[in-house]
Amino acid sequence: MDLAARLELLKSRAQERQARPRGLPEGEPTATPVGTAVVSRHSGPPFPEAGAWDPDRLAWLAGGGPGPRGAGPKVIFLDTETTGLAGGTGTYAFLVGILRLVPAGGWEIQQFFMGDPGEEAAMLTLLAEALAGDPVIVTYNGKAFDWPLLETRFILSRMQVPRVSLHLDLLFPARRVWRERLKDCSLSNLHLAVLGGDRTGDVPGWEIPSLYFEYQRLGEAGAIVPVFSHNRADIRALAELALRLCRISRDPLATLEAPEDLAGMGRLLAARGQGGLGRECLEGAVSRGLAGPPRAAAERLLLRIARRQLPEAAYVKLCYRLLDSGDRSSLWPHDALAKHLEHRRRDYAAAEAVTAAALREATAEAQTAFAHRLARLRRKLALQA
């Protein structure tokens, strides 16, 4: 078959697909100057933690700096469903959902859907209208995937990419807080494990592209309806996660129970310049029984912050308190205290005692450094004598 025949075959098949009656999953067809796409609308009452909403604090937590004042009505939560996860020009978003928190209370969702690639320009036109006004957009892993993909589709459609004043990706703060306890920090898992959501009957993300292709092939609305539900669940979870982060960051010691989560919030607060509260979170995590490698990482950061913030006597007292906790999964308190006693106080005898205790507890790979320090301290004590 020559090239002309192949092109003619592809053209006839495309026309056949377009002529085949296709069920409408939900929503209403909406006309634009470049065609028609489907828009589905949903709304609901305020989220349980709606009173914690603070876009400026969320922007700070997400590492975007302070958000624009009065940005509440202009904050848009965004999530996409795509034909694959590889990205590039061969992947496109067939469903884009956005959520707004309504100033009077509650929330509104709009979902923009293209049943066929020929409707992409119309769908993007409707999405661009919804994103007008330089909003703040909030995504989950959107800086790496969702937004670059949408930018590519706008460019390939020869359309202006919508301008946003700030893009907040909640993957990064969420991962800092919950990764030690949950390991899986996907949005759907956080919805279940942190927000207490129910994803019964939810379609898994890896199955979504095949459901869309099945819908295109057969035209049966039932194949794609679960994808709409999945997209709405993800956007609501994204908004609830933003509210939860705003609430727990204000009083983490009272709102977080698991020591792993408290240590994670301490790391996040310290990284955002709030070292005092971050230190309190790390101390709280250690006192609540944090153990193993997470404890070692928490004590290392805790002591680094405390050395800068606390008076010398309080810093030494903290080191001894950590030594007396009975947990030997971390030798950072020994290391920090021995250094301080040797170089700041020049109390070589006390430093020798701490180092000898550390040497008894140290693993084989850590023993060399402590043995070297112990030998040096004993030489100094001999010279002193």
Plain-language structure description:
Helices cover 56% and strands 12% of the residues. With 385 residues, the chain is an alpha/beta fold. The chain has helices at residues 3-19, 55-61, 120-130, 142-156, 171-182, 187-193, 208-218, 225-250, 252-255, 259-271, 275-287, 292-309, 312-323, 332-345, 348-361, 364-384; strands at 28-32, 35-44, 75-82, 93-101, 107-113, 136-139, 166-169. It is elongated and about 95 Å long. The longest helix has 26 residues, at 225-250. Helix 5 (171-182) packs antiparallel against helix 10 and helix 12 (292-309) runs antiparallel to helix 13 (312-323). It has a seven-stranded mixed β-sheet with strand order 1-2-5-4-3-6-7, sandwiched between helices. The N and C termini lie far apart (98 Å).
Quick overview:
With 385 residues, this protein is an alpha/beta fold.
Instruction: Return the string of H and E elements.
Output: HEEHEEEHEHEHHHHHHHHHHHH
Q: Radius of gyration, rounded? A: 28 Å
Number of helices: 16
Shape: elongated
Low-confidence stretches: none
Kindly estimate the percentage of residues that lie in beta strands according to DSSP: 5-15%
